[in-house]
Amino acid sequence: MRKKRVLLLSEGFGTGHTQAAYALAMGLRQLSQGIQTRVIELGTFLNPVIGPLILAAYRKTVSKQPKLVGKLYRGHYDKALNRVTRFALHRLFYNQVSDVVKQLKPDLIICTHPFPNAVVSRLKRLGLETPLYTLITDYDAHATWINPEVDGYLVSTASVRDKLIARGVPPSRIEVTGIPVHPNFWHPHDRAEILQLFQLKDMPTVLVMGGGWGLLYDEQMIEYMTTYADKVQLIFCVGDNEKAKEKMLANPKFQHPHIKVLGFTKEISKLMDVSDLLVTKPGGMTCTEGMAKGIPMLFYQPIPGQEEENLEYFVSQGFGELMSSKETIDRWFRLIQEPYAADRHRDRLLAIRNAEYHPARCSEAVLNLIQSSESNRVERPVN
Question: Domain range for residue 235?
Answer without folding.
Answer: 187-356
